């Protein structure tokens, strides 16, 4: 019985994740079409809503090409690794109070580790294809991913300093009074730039710069292994938007509703209205709205900014963003200790 | 079997199913030109790759290793900042001071710069005040 329940739980997380990937691709095409005064996909289903499913079906029925000069096993293993580790991050996400698969104490470490291993998939796929475009694309992509991962992990360090825990749920619950966006606004901007670069998105999509490197590390990949890269990219976009909203916007908590409760002093009353408002204050809809806004910003950024050069990308990471975050890593513990306001892990209270 | 274990197994199963669907349902009639390496308009030829690449990529990977290790070593302090107090902070600051000196040395050696043939690169153009260090 418990086996069946755990299978249902796993499917309940992963099937909506894959469907949301499909709808994110649709929304990307629709939003970018509106920003460029086009119509966008409108033929398949109502308003083109089924376009992504049709695309996926088409790609699954396409012929796979296994280049003769490639290392076939690694060639197929690379995309599989990328997909697996892009989707494994959903394991530790809390969607609502008590709604998660794993409440691990080191949830944040798990997400960092999983996103680091996903880099290996890209490296393997690009190297094993034995084509110069794929090789150069995977070199660029790997350098970019590891450099920006440094920024993400050092910003996470400060979030953990202010919450005192590596558990994702504790990080969310610590933001009941005020979301971490307020004390860490500059770091949120750094983290957001880092997450755009980490997901290989538009101003930083040097790995697949069409004019130079055909299609980057996935030049030789076709059919379902290309679908794996596609799914992994969009799944990691959604995942990193969820991570952004968990770290800086309070995840499933609604700060506005909490301030209404405290302003009107509703916490003591026991009416239906109070029950309703406490349901609204921590429901998964809050997380969904925040994540959707962030995904929209990702698409907006893609439609707005031109692509930068590779040496510029690396300079921005190592000479601008990294010194800023390192300075914050030194400043913030000093401020917190100097004013004797060391935060405590609220789950230990 | 807990849900976590099942989830860890579900991902490879999903990938294998998608791969199997593709391998079973799709047509497959390869010939020599189709299976050769991609090249723009010409015959592709082997031996262009698996050779040298820019040393900058290796240096970035090396520096990433150092910095990631540094950040991982600071994580235990950060989780226990409340119990450690000022003593732990001072130790952390000394640790960071050494690493910051090393970082400044790397910047001074131009280790973090990829050579570009374009004259106006990012630092030169918009951070001319820092040009003593960066260029």
TrEMBL record, chain A:
Organism (species): Aspergillus kawachii
EC number: 7.1.1.2
Membrane topology per record: Multi-pass membrane protein
Catalytic EC class: translocase
Lineage: Eukaryota, Fungi, Dikarya, Ascomycota, Pezizomycotina
One Gene Ontology CC term in the entry: mitochondrial inner membrane
Keywords per UniProt: Membrane, Mitochondrion, NAD, Oxidoreductase, Transmembrane, Transmembrane helix, Ubiquinone
InterPro entries cross-referenced by the UniProt entry: NADH_UbQ_OxRdtase_su1/FPO, NADH_UbQ_OxRdtase_su1_CS
Transmembrane regions: 6-27, 39-60, 72-96, 108-130, 150-170, 177-197, 213-231, 238-261, 273-301, 313-341
Cellular localization per UniProt: Membrane; Mitochondrion inner membrane
Gene Ontology biological process terms, A to Z: aerobic respiration
GO molecular function: NADH dehydrogenase (ubiquinone) activity; NADH dehydrogenase activity
Chief place where the protein resides: membrane
Name of protein: NADH-ubiquinone oxidoreductase chain 1
UniProt keyword Ribosomal protein, yes or no: no
Similarity section: Belongs to the complex I subunit 1 family.
Reaction equation(s) it catalyzes: a ubiquinone + NADH + 5 H(+)(in) = a ubiquinol + NAD(+) + 4 H(+)(out)
UniProtKB/TrEMBL annotation, chain B:
PANTHER family: NADH-UBIQUINONE OXIDOREDUCTASE CHAIN 3 (PTHR11058)
Reaction equation(s) it catalyzes: a ubiquinone + NADH + 5 H(+)(in) = a ubiquinol + NAD(+) + 4 H(+)(out)
GO cellular component term, pick one: NADH dehydrogenase complex
Keyword Metal-binding: no
One GO MF term attached to the UniProt entry: oxidoreductase activity
EC id: 7.1.1.2
Organism of derivation: Aspergillus kawachii
Gene name of the record: nad3
Record-linked Gene3D superfamilies: NADH:ubiquinone/plastoquinone oxidoreductase, chain 3 (1.20.58.1610)
Name the record gives this protein: NADH-ubiquinone oxidoreductase chain 3
Pfam families the record matches: Oxidored_q4 (PF00507)
Compartments (UniProt record): Mitochondrion membrane
């Amino acid at each position: 019985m418990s086996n069946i329940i755990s299978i249902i739980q796993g499917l309940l997380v992963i099937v909506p994740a894959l469907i949301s990937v499909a709808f994110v691709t649709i929304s990307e095409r629709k939003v970018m079409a509106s920003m460029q005064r086009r119509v966008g996909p409108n033929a398949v289903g109502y308003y083109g809503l089924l376009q992504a499913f049709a695309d996926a079906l088409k790609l699954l029925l396409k012929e796979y090409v296994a280049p003769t000069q490639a290392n076939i096993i690694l060639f197929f293993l690379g995309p599989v690794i990328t997909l697996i580790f892009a989707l494994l991050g959903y394991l530790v996400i809390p969607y609502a109070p008590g709604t998660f698969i794993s409440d691990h104490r080191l949830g944040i470490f798990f997400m960092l580790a999983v996103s680091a291993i996903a880099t290996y998939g890209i490296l393997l796929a690009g190297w094993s294809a034995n084509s110069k475009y794929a090789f150069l694309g995977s070199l660029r992509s790997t350098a970019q991913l590891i450099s920006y991962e440094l920024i993400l992990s050092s910003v996470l360090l400060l979030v953990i300093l202010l919450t005192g825990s590596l558990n994702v749920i504790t990080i969310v619950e610590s933001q009941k009074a005020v979301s971490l966006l307020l004390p860490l606004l500059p770091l949120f901007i750094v983290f957001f730039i880092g997450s755009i670069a980490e997901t290989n998105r538009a101003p930083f999509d040097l790995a697949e710069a069409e004019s130079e490197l055909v299609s980057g590390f996935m030049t030789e990949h076709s059919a379902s292994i290309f679908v794996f890269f596609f799914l992994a990219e969009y799944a990691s976009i959604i995942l990193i938007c969820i991570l952004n909203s968990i770290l800086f916007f309070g995840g499933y908590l609604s700060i506005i509703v909490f301030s209404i409760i405290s302003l009107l002093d509703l916490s003591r009353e026991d009416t239906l209205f109070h029950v309703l408002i406490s349901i609204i204050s921590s429901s998964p809809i809050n997380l969904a709205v925040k994540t959707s806004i962030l995904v929209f910003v990702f698409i907006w950024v893609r439609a707005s900014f031109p692509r930068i050069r590779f040496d510029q990308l690396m300079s921005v990471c190592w000479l601008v963003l990294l010194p800023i975050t390192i300075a914050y890593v030194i400043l913030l513990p000093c401020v917190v200790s100097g004013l004797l306001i060391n935060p405590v892990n609220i789950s230990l209270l | 079997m807990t849900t976590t274990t099942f989830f860890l197994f579900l991902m490879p199963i999903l990938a294998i199913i998608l791969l199997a669907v593709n391998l079973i349902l799709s047509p497959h009639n390869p010939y020599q030109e189709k299976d050769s390496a991609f090249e723009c308009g010409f015959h592709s030829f082997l031996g262009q790759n698996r050779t040298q690449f820019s040393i900058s990529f290796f240096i970035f990977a090396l520096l990433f290793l150092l910095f990631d290790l540094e950040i991982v070593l600071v994580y235990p302090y950060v989780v226990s900042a409340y119990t450690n107090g000022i003593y732990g902070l001072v130790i952390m600051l000394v640790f960071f001071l050494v690493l910051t000196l090393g970082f400044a040395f790397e910047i001074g050696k131009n280790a973090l710069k990829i050579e570009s043939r374009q004259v106006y690169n990012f630092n030169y153009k918009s951070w001319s005040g820092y040009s003593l260090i960066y260029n």
